[in-house]
Amino acid sequence: MASRCLEPTLERASRATMARLQLRRLREQVAHAARSSPFYRRKLRAVGVRPDRVRTLDDLRRLPFTTKDELKENQAEHPPWGDVLAVPFADVLRVHLTSATTGRPLAFLDTAADWHGFYHSYARSLYAYGVRSSDMVMAAFSYGPWIGYWSGFYAAQDLGCLVYPVGGLSTEQRLDALLAYPITVLGCTPSYALFLAEAAAKKGIDLAKDTKLRITWHTGEPGASIPATRAKIEAAFGARAYDLPGLTEIAAWGFECDARAGLTHVHEDYAYPEVLDEQDRPVKPGERGELVFTSLYRKAMPLLRYRTRDIVQLADRRCPCGRTLVAFEGGVLARVDDMKKVRGIIVYPRRIEELVRPHRDVDEFQIVFRRVDGLDDILLRIDPSPALASTERTGLRETLAKDLQLGLGIRVSVEVGEPGSLPRWDHKARRVKDERTEVPF
Ligand SMILES: [Zn+2]
Which of 263, 262, 225 is nearest to 241 (CA)? Predict the structure, then answer.
């Protein structure tokens, strides 16, 4: 498995070596933030921590958290970049925006070295999936301010791959390119992978047979870490599919391990991870908590203890690949912001996807949280495969209702509509609607 490590000395470093490297970088980052970022100078002063007092990795716990809301407020008060910026404006090279569903997105700046760090950590993930310089890569994301497109493109180029820029091309043109060129690797959101597969099927193209694809990677949403969703993508493309978790504010921070033991590794020399319980104490191996990252490489916006709002489970086993990097079970398991309460029960849309995707006759779905006669209700709308006979729809509805009741512990209303009746997603999906005007708990 060593051949799957782009940087074996880091990926298989002893814990002591990694901790030494992390501590050196952490102290540099804290000193830099305190010296050059007015935002962090105020925050550190407010809790009375002097940067030179951070002498061990545990001392990190004395530093305050940073939240996305805080960064957004800071940019609103000091437009357009906020005074978190810790380098002269002449030193910044790139700007990217987070994909905000509400309000103005967060603008994130990078120096040349920061940008290299971002895409190089991404390249390490691609290398772990098996991507090599002999590959031809299509990064099928839209050309725009989203960091996922640019970093995927640069990462493939960093590995010496031939990269085909398809940012501005239509799905039709991308399908044509997949047939015409020896493209072996495809990167896109999991929703777009399914969209592309459906578009190909409509044209009578069998992506598994008619293309040279051997690896696909998926980012922007956690879909590819859901086994049934990944299986659907792998069957459609005839390739190995991998989940790549990332955050604009931190890094392409990890990769689903190629050893296929269900673990996701963290590039912990780039971003120091903490997994914290509800009282902000570190969880034990095997337990779940919120992922908090401290950037160990970015100088323009050096985030300390950034609350990601992502729930992960710290692995309590060694990965068979031989890497020593920290690992999580199954990637990002849930987003705190996606959590819904229905009749006192906590429901994550990801869990619903886990239960719906194994049904082969489901092409697309939508989850609606609503109130019926004053009571909370979940409605699952199904867009069935055209291959499903209309006489079989009742059977599908009943099977799904039973699986969801068992899996969630709550009754779900299921509606099976006409094929093609629900929206498709060419970037990140918005399959969840919450129609309740008030949250009852
Ligand atoms: Zn591994």
Answer: 225
The dihedral over CA atoms of 298, 304, 305, 307, expressed in degrees to the nearest 10, equals: -70
Taking the centre of ligand 1 as the mean of its atom positions, its distance from the CA of residue 36, in whole angstroms, is 37
Q: How far is the CA of 267 from the centre of ligand 1 (A)?
A: 12
Report the separation in Å between the CA atom of 356 and the middle of ligand 1, taken as the mean of its atom positions: 28
pLDDT by position in tens, the chain (length 441): 446 899 999 999 999 999 999 999 999 999 999 999 999 999 999 999 999 999 999 999 999 999 999 999 999 999 999 999 999 999 999 999 997 666 789 999 999 999 999 999 999 999 999 999 999 999 998 888 989 889 999 999 999 999 999 988 999 999 999 999 999 999 999 999 999 999 999 999 999 999 999 999 999 887 788 899 999 999 999 999 999 999 999 999 999 999 988 999 999 999 999 999 999 999 999 999 999 999 999 999 999 999 999 999 999 999 999 999 999 999 999 888 888 888 888 888 888 999 999 999 999 999 999 988 878 899 999 999 998 998 999 999 999 999 999 999 889 999 999 999 998 888 788 898 888 854 444
In 10 A of CB 66, how many CB atoms? 26
The pTM of the full predicted model, rounded to 2 decimals, is 0.89
Length of the chain: 441
Query: In angstroms, rounded to a whole number, what is the distance separating the alpha carbons of residues 238 and 213?
Result: 7
Q: How far is the CA of 120 from the centre of ligand 1 (A)?
A: 19
Give the containing element (helix H, strand E) for 168: none
209: its two tokens: 């047979």
Residue 129 Cα, ligand 1 centroid: separation in angstroms? 11
